[in-house]
User: What shape does this take?
Amino acid sequence: MNATNLSPLFRTAIGFDRLARLVDTAASVDVSYPPYNIEKTGEDSYQLTMAVAGFGPDDIELTVKENTLLIAGRVAPEAARAELLYRGIAGRAFERRFVLAEHIVVDGADLRNGLLNVGLKRVVPESSRPRKIAINGASAAPSLANDAQPAAQAA
Assistant: This one.
């Protein structure tokens, strides 16, 4: 894989630490495990679906910190069972990070049939929403009654 050095770019930029971290983590992410889908379910809602066969609700941890959703899975050591002849279901630990846009919050999570579904919703605070501002001022059209009085007095 080609490594791109972006340090000259960030050497002269101030306040872009989050962008630098995003670029660094994007280059080092294993994009193959576990597989996932991101679906837009409404105008301001999304759903992240991740295939986590072999993991239970106690084996998965979801954390949101600084606009980053971290999903980590760690399977507890199995008790001695029958001899396993073939292991086709991956049970290795994973850690997957998703950068969330501003005002995106996690709405809930559900684990069913080996699929982890995470609901995401855009919640824009009232102070950030666009609003109309009323314009106050004198009317632009002159009043005819005031214009007629000086002419009547002069006659």
